[in-house]
Amino acid sequence: MSVVAEMPQNTTTPKLQQHDYPTLFEIGSKGLSAVSLSKSDVPAVDRKAAVPAELLADTTPALPEVGELDLVRHYKRLAHRCFSIDENFYPLGSCTMKYNPRINERAAAMGGFANAHPYQDDADAQGVLELLYRLRCDLAEIAGLPEVTLQPAAGAHGEMTGLMIINAYHRARGENRQTVLTPDSAHGTNPATCTVCGRASVSVKSLPNGRMDLDDLRAKTDNDTVALMITNPNTVGVFDETIADVAEILHAKGAQLYLDGANMNAILGITRPGDFGVDVMHYNTHKTFSTPHGCGGPGAGPVGVAEHLRPFLPVPQVVKKGDGTFAWCSDRPDTIGKVRSFMGQIGVLVRAYTYIRGLGSDGLRDVADKSVLAANYLAAKLKDRYPMPFPAPYAHEFITVPDFAGADEHDIAKRLIDHGIHPPTMSWPIHHCLMIEPTETESLRTLDRFVEVMLSIADEIESNPEVVRGAPHTTPVGRLDEVTASRKPNVRWRPE
Ligand SMILES: Cc1ncc(COP(=O)(O)O)c(C=O)c1O
Fold this sequence. Notes:
The protein is of the alpha/beta class. 35% of the residues lie in helices and 10% in strands.
């Protein structure tokens, strides 16, 4: 491969503005290439004779032709435009954007894990199988539930798997229950899961303190109730201490308690869902146990179940045999079947295992303690300028509903970008809110800087609201019409 600059024959120097770099088409020039291959000694094939006519395009695609260095710079420049946890504080509530230890990446890239073939014989894949087996045992221990499947590929997929298991359980008892209860603060994936699984979701009210309204729960739980899907700590950032009562109300009617474990970060090593009455739960390993997961992936959503639901778990399950070796086992007659191709999201699972083992049980407890401490520290520092609708103490995140005359939550979120801080989650789970989750991995210095920036924005709204309303001012693209941008995204470059 040549690394010597090739001079374009007919390019005109594009005019650069600070953020306005040209596309590859614009910097390219006919005949340039980022690779120089040696001459082929394979005889040329007559394309037309070799490929059926209907599969042949009339013209070759108009791909940009560009030299190696320009290509590298182009992608490097694009990469610098990304907002990432490696570069910026990312207090995106509910998403647990924590630092991803590099050791996890190293483990996931090891040949035995990264190059394992899904059809490899068990005997040739003992390392991967042992890791998966150990991970499922660790997750079971952390949840206080006897068995875990690692198959689901994300939190929402875990929810679907969990609800399928619960449906199978009711069916096995000759029942055809149809209603799933979800709190009014539920994550959108919970009611969506109900629909995907052919069940109706019914909303249960929350109290002003963010806990579940037990009277409303009692009134809505009956012999048609499949389950309650609850997140705890919940999406308004509070741990509902009435959870054991919630479990009792459901169990008295034969219904199941499903825990959306996306917020497990706050309770690791402090309490275990199985101990407070949960029958099924999913983890978001890509939040609680790290994994770079911005922009929708990748993830893994293992599901843990109580003893009476074990027969319905997906197959195959990784098991340890009597001789100490590991294998895939499909011997589970009442299983709901397979919910994902091959063995699950191996790379994410290796990261989760590395994270869990790297920290150990004391370290996991420390994660929860520090994530809660960080959230409550920020809330205490901000509460005089940023009203909080739910009373402290909070779990690992908290909600503020800013109340300024000159700018709203949207403007504040955009102004944070100018300070190199990712916007918090906005307008969910309640209108006009910002949901802030610092995670345990941020230093006191970063937390203090965030407070300083938030307070400076509060001052700015009072003195110079136009600046806040016009933010961001430092990004390649300024304030967008977000409805148009998300409904009619224009992401394709076309020649003029
Ligand atoms: C509370 C809660 N439940 C479920 C999910 C869904 O998880 P996933 O995005 O992995 O499908 C999320 C994701 O943010 C969440 O915050």
